[in-house]
Design a protein that fits this description.
7 helices, binds 6-phosphogluconic acid, Rossmann fold, about 250 residues, alpha/beta, about 20% strand, single chain
Amino acid sequence: MTREVAVYPDLAAASAAVAALVVELAHATDGDRTVVISGGRTPATLFGLLARASATEPGLRDLEVYFSDERAVPPDDPQSNFGLADRLWFAPAAMPPERVHRIRGELAPVDAAAAEYDAQLVRRFGGRPSPDGPGFDLAVLGVGPDGHTASLFPGAAAARVADRWAVASPPGTVPPPIPRVTLTSAALSTARTVVFLVGGADKRAIVRRLLAPGGADGTALPAATVRPRERLLWVLDADAAGAEPTARA
Ligand code: 6PG
């Protein structure tokens, strides 16, 4: 696994760089390409860019889109990660519904929703997640100020599950305080490439901890446990990096 860090002037430029990676994946012709997207505020710009790119990049409609996590709410709830991506990307891009694999957050109890997504991924990839088995092509993740990613929160049992693709996660340390379904670190680590797209000065401290040489204390942080097969990319804006830009979109 290689690790690269790129610092862009702002989140718009960082998002454009990640959009280019998704488009590059869409150009790959050998079979269905799978991409995992996350929720929260950060990816909103990226989703809008992908919607606009779909007008000239029809291959984007062939991507299989999965979710890193989902809140235990219906898809039309303002807190739904699917709802955000649908409003900003899938609907404007006329993404075929069968290419979008949402987590059914409305399914109660949340453990049933997790079991359903886990079973879907076992079928998709032919078994449990493993470092040398099949997995995702690309995962675009965020990170919280506490070092969580997806809905894997520090100290939570979900952050230690290694033999499943998806598990239920109790309300985390960041709003909204509702139960969630999350991909496990083992599932995220099946990706060939993982991109952490991070913006804002409120993330500067956690980015510094996660990028510290050796990441000695990083092992306690769920975001530090995600180890893709090939490439780990940190795509930051200057505020999150606390540094001058090193790249231009
Ligand atoms: C979620 C996200 C979560 C997010 C981080 C960062 O469901 O909330 O998947 O993991 O990526 O919390 O969120 P922001 O982008 O809003 O800072």
